[in-house]
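Last lecture ended with a question: if I hand you only a sequence, what can you say about the shape of the protein? Today we answer it with a concrete record. The protein is Type II secretion system protein J. Below, first the input exactly as provided, then the predicted structure, then a couple of comments.
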Amino acid sequence: MKISMPKNKGFSTIEMMVAVALFAMVMLMSAAAMVTLVNANQKARSVKTAVDNLNFVVETISRSLRVGSHYYCQPTTNSSGIVINHNTQNCPIDLNNSNSGGTYMGFSDRNGKLVFYRYNGSCIQRKVTNVDWVSAAPYVDDLNSGYDCITPADITITRFRFYVYNTGIASPKQPFVTLVISGTVGAKQSTQTNFNLMTSVTQRIPQE
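The predicted structure:
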């Protein structure tokens, strides 16, 4: 009796190795694409949240300046304190000096109280006082106390400038301020994004 053997053959070892290798490559590519998508999503969400928070900070500064008066800007701060004696001061831009403008700003808010903003090297800080601008003669701003960061922890400010104009009483124009802010968004280096922001504010109340 003649027995017929089936002619169908199975996969050889090499064919199995090639199939497994191709499958592994596809899975690795899929995993890499998934990681990229996750990182992109995290970056987009962190950027949106941080930018929303930064916009709130900028709007807070702009609103307080808009209804404030007696702008006093200074190019740099020093450890000995800054004396404000019923004076105002401009910080104009100098196109030949990248460090022109001011990193420190004091003014009278809408209630007549002294308010200060400054750049400390990594964040924007604010100090709110109960001192009347009218009675502060002179007022020494202690730079070592009273200041708090108002920018979120996941935002690093690398540049912050006030450009202030028309603060003098004799100026026929309303005082106005331009804010320039640069920095990075994101706590992780892999998801960080650089940003540049600029806005201008004009004093609403008549210059005294």
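Comments.
1. The chain has one domain: 21-202.
2. The CA atoms of residues 83 and 131 lie 14 Å apart.
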